[in-house]
Amino acid sequence: CRDAFVALRALDDGVVAQLRSALPTDFALFLVPSLPLAPGTGKVDRRRLGQMVGLLSDPSRREREDTLTSVELSSIQSWYKTLLPLVFMSVYHNVREFARLPLIEEDLAEIPLRCILLFWSVFLEFSWRVLSLFYLILLLWHLPQTNFFSRWCAQLPLKEYSVLVLFCALAPDARWGLLSSSPGICFGLRRGRFLSWPGACLVGFPVWVRDCGWWMRNRTAWDIGTWYASSVKTYACSVKDRFVNSVRGRSRRLGLSRECDWCKTPVWRYGGRVERDVANAWYCSACWAHYYNHKECAKCKVWAARGALAPLSLAALAAAPEVGAGAGAPAADAGATAAAAVANGAAASAASSSSVWLCITCLPLELRKNASGLATAPRPRPSAGSRSSSTSSGAFAAAPPSSIELRVVGVLGSGAGLPSSPPLNDQSPSKRPAAESGGGGAELPGQPPVVRQRTSNETERGLVARNGQVPERREDEEQSDAKRPRTAEMPNGAGHRCVNGAEPVVSFTALPTPRAAGRMKSKSKEWRIIERATDMSFESEDDSLLSLDSLRHTKLTSALRREVGKRLPRQVLKNIATLGGLLQELARIPEDDGSSPSSSSSNSGTTRHSDEATKEYAAWGMMWNSRCTWIIKCSKPLPEPLFRAAIARLVERHAALRAEMRDPFRFFTAIQQAMSALDMWKNQGPRPRGVLAPAQRLIGRFVRWSLRNTWPRISVSRQGCDSTQGSGCLIKVLERSPTLQDAEYKLWGEAREFQPPFRALLAPYGAEAEEGALLHLTVTHMLSDGYSIVPLLDDLVNLVAKEAAVLGLSDAPPPPPLPRVPNMFEAMERRIFRTIEGTDDAEGICPRITPHALTGKNTRNAHTTFATLPVEVVTSIRRGAVRVGVSDDIAMLALLGVTLAWFVNRPTEQIAMIVPQRDGPGENDMVGLFSDVRHLCICTEGLSFAGVALRLHHIVKERLWTVPELRTQFELISLNFEWTDFQEKQGFSQYVNCGERAESSFHPLRIAVDQPDKDVWRMRVSFQEGAFDEQQREQFFQLFEKSLSMLRESPLELVWPTDCPKGNASAPPA
C-alpha cells in the first residue's frame, strides 16, 4: 500500500470522497497541515511524513515490556529448583553403587570411563524420575479441582507438587516410578498425549509450581518456618479447644459443669458463683475478676479499668460535666450501688479523704504514668441474658456510579485554558477535600448516584452549562455567529433520503459525489440487499461507502452470502469506495457452492454432523461460565412448537451451540500458561551460538509440536440435531405474562440457571392485539462475542419462517435454504496453531490470539461514570464523520484518541482495543469468539483532527494493529465499542435495556461505548480508584467536549497548536 499526502485549506462535504475516487485503490490518503520541506534541498521531506503517520507502536512501552519480561523469565527459571531433590537422589544412588565397585592400581586408567558411566547413569535415573513426575502431574490436572488430595495438600509449601516431587525423589527404582505414573500414562495414551506431554510440561512446570508457591516469593526461609510454626501452634490449639469443649459438653450433660451467663462458656461448678447483691445469674470466676477490675470514675461517672488516685485539687470535680451512663456503665439501681461499695472498699480505706479515683481519660497527664489496670476501655458489668459479640466486615463498598449527559459543544475561545493533567501512572490519591468535590464522584458508599446534567439553553452555539449557569457570550462571538454558516439542518437533497422515508435526522444516508447525477440506474437485487443490510439509501452508483462501520460490514457480507450466494472477501471490500465498485466486484465473484440447495439437504447435513461428532478441535479456554446474552422482541405471537422447532434447527446449524468439553477447564489454563512461557523463552531467553544453536532450534520445534498435540480439545455433540426432543434441556417456555415488563422480569429470573454452552427462553406476553413474546438467548462467552447476534438473529428469522410453513402456521412460501455455515472450531484451531508457531499474517485472515497473561492481571476497583450522548451529539458526530470521510466508529475512535492524548499529555498514546477479527471466509456467519484485544497507536503530533481520523481509518482498514504483549497488556487504556443492531426483521428486533452499576476493570482506565437507543450513545468510563480524583475525572469529559467541538467546527485545526510535549509534560495545551 502506497501513501498519498494532501494538505487542505478547507474541508467541505464530499472532498475526501472525491480525493479517494481520484486515487488508485492501493493508495492510502492522509491529511497533513502542510508538506514539510527538507532543509537545503527544498524538496518534500518524505521521511518526516512517514514519521507522522507510520508509528505503529510506542518505543517506551516496548522497552518496559522487555524489562518486565526479562524479570518474569528469571523468576520462572528459579522455580526449576523444585527438581533439585530428584537430582540429589539420582546422584546419591549412583555414587553409592559406584563406590561399591573395587578399584585397584591397574584399573586407574578406567577412572574417566567410570566417570562418564556415572554421569550417564545419573542422567537416566533423573530422566525416569522426571517423567514419572510429569505423568503424575497429568493425572493431577484430570482430577476434579476440589478433591481429597488437594484439600489434604492445601497447607503444604507447594501444595500437591510438594508431595509429588517428594514421592518421585524417594522412589527406590524405575519400577516404582512406572507403577505410580501408570494412571497418567493411561490418560496420555487415551488422549493421544503420551509422547507430547513431557515437552509441554517441560515449559509449563515452573509456571504451575510458581502459582502454588507464589505466597513465598517475598519471604525468607525464617519467615516461612515461622509461619508454619504459627500454623502448627494454631492447629494444636484448635485440637486442644475441640478436646476441652468435648469434655465440657460431656461434663455439662453429667451435671459437673455449668454455662456462664455472660461468656456462655461451660465451666466447672467450682469455677463460678452467684452474688445476690449484684445479680441472680451464675458467672464464672474470670468474668467476676473482669467485673471487679472496673471502678467508677469520680469525675465522668464511667466504669473503667485503667485509672489512679488523684488529689482533689487536680481532680476539679466541681468543673466536670455530668456524663450519662454509656455502654459500659452499670444500671442505676440498688444492686449497682452495692457493687460499687464492694469494688471500691479496699481503695477507699487505704486512700486519704482528700483523694479520688479517676479513669485514664480524666486523669491529669502527670499522674497517668502510675495508672493501674490493663483494659483500655470501660466494660459493661455482667447482666442476666447478655452476651458479648463483635462483628467486622472487610467487604469493599464500591462508590456508586455517576451519570452525565453531554450536549453539543462549540469551539472554545483561544484563551480558554484547560486544567492540567498529571501523568497516567501517577498513583497519588486525591488531596481535594470532599466538600470541594461539587457533589460528583465523591459519593459515600450506600448513597444514590449523583446525576449531573450538562445542558445548555444555547444548543445552536453549543455552550455547556456548568453548575446551572450558562456562560455569557462576548460581542466577537455574536459577530462570528452571523458569519458562520448554519449547520443545524441537513439538506434533504439527492442521495440523502432515509430508507424509512423519515427526515434525515442522523447520518444514515450515503455520501454522494459530484458525479452522482450522471449514473442513475435501476436498482438491482444486490443493490436492494445492500440497502436493506446497511439500513442506508443509495441513489446512484457513485454514492460513497465510507460511512460503513464494522457492524454494517458484518451485516453486509452476511446478507450477500445468504441471499445471493456471494462470499465477499475483506481484501476486496476494503478497497471499494463507492456502490458502483461494490456491484462490479459482486458481478465478478462466482456463487458459493455451499449456498446450493443440495449442500443443505438433510442427507449431507446428517453426514456432516456425524463427522463433527467424531472429531475433536483445539479451543482457547476462557470465560466458559461467562455469558453473552441477548433479548429479542417478537411483535407477533410465537407458538411454542414453532419456537422449539426453530431453536432446534438453530442449534443444529451452529457447532458452537452444541459444544462439549473433552478436557477439564483448568487444563486449558495450564497449557495456555505453558505457551506463554514458551513465548518468553523465545523472546528473552538465551541465544547460544555455534553447536548449541541447532540444538536450541530443535528443542523449540519439539516443544511447539508438543503443545499442538497436547492442546485441550472440544467436541461437537449431536444433541438437538435429530429431533426437537433432543433440545428439551436447552429450551424453556415460561408462562404468559400480562405485560412486557413482567415477561422481562421472568426472563432474568430464569436466566440465572445457565449451563454452558447455550440456552433459549421464551416468555410470551399480552393478549389479542398486543400479543407478543420475548426470546432470551444465552451463549457461553468462550464461544461467542457481541457480533454473534448478527448470524443468530438472521438465522432465527429464516428458520421461524421455514418451520411455520412446514407446520402449516403460515400461508407464505418457505424461504430459500440457508447456505452451509463453516465449522467455527476449524477456524479457531487454525488461529491457535498459528499462535503456537508465533506467526501472523498482515491481512488478519488467520490472526494470532492474545497470549495468556501470567502476571499483571489484577482487578482494579474503579469509579464508573455513565456519560449519555443524546441525539443532537450523535448527529453532530455523524455529520463530522461524513465531512471527514470516515465511518461513525472511526470518528468516535478519533474523538476518544484526541481526548486521551490531551488527558495523559502525550502526543503518542497506545491503547488496547477490542476488535471484531472476522476477516476469514464465512466468519461473519459463524457464532464464535473471534473478537480479540489489539494494541493501537494513536499519533497526534503534527496532525489535525481530520488527519488523526484518516490515519486511524487507514490503520483499521489495513489491520496495522499489534498483538498485545505478554507482561504489559493490562497497563494500557482499554477501549471497546459495543454497537447494537436495532433493525427489525420480520417482526424480530433486539430489545435493549441498559442499566447502571459499578464496574471493575483490569486496566487503569476503561472506556466502553454502547447504544441504549438507535440514535443515543453512552460512554461507560471506569477510572481506577486512587489514580484519578474527582477533578481529573471531570477534566476527561471537558477534554472530550473540546475534541467534539473540534470535529464539528474546525477539523483541520492542529491537535497540538503549540509545541508538542515530549513524554509526560505538566499540562495539556490550552
Characterization of this structure:
It is a single chain. By secondary structure, the protein is of the alpha/beta class. Helices cover 39% and strands 12% of the residues. It is built from 31 helices and 26 strands. The chain has an eight-stranded mixed sheet with strand order 12-11-20-26-25-23-21-22. It has a five-stranded mixed sheet with strand order 17-18-19-14-24, sandwiched between helices. The chain is globular. The two termini are 37 Å apart. Residues 317-352, 372-398, 408-518, 595-607, 721-728 and 1064-1070 have low confidence and may be disordered.
How is the main sheet built?
Answer: 8 strands, mixed
**Strand tally:** 26
Radius of gyration: 37 Å
Strand content is 5-15%
Low-confidence stretches: 317-352, 372-398, 408-518, 595-607, 721-728, 1064-1070
> Helicity level, as a percent range?
25-40%
Biggest sheet: strands side by side, in what order? 12-11-20-26-25-23-21-22
SSE arrangement:
Blueprint: E1 2-6, H1 15-22, E2 27-31, H2 46-53, H3 59-78, H4 84-99, H5 111-142, H6 148-152, H7 160-170, H8 174-180, H9 182-190, H10 197-212, H11 221-254, E3 257-259, E4 266-268, E5 272-273, E6 283-284, H12 285-292, E7 295-296, E8 303-304, E9 307-311, H13 312-315, H14 334-343, H15 345-350, E10 355-359, E11 402-405, E12 451-453, H16 475-483, H17 525-534, H18 550-563, H19 570-573, H20 579-588, H21 602-613, E13 616-618, E14 627-634, H22 640-653, E15 659-661, H23 665-684, H24 692-710, E16 713-716, E17 731-733, H25 740-750, E18 758-765, E19 772-780, H26 789-806, H27 824-837, E20 862-869, H28 871-884, H29 888-904, E21 908-915, E22 932-939, H30 945-958, E23 973-978, E24 988-990, E25 1005-1013, E26 1016-1024, H31 1030-1049
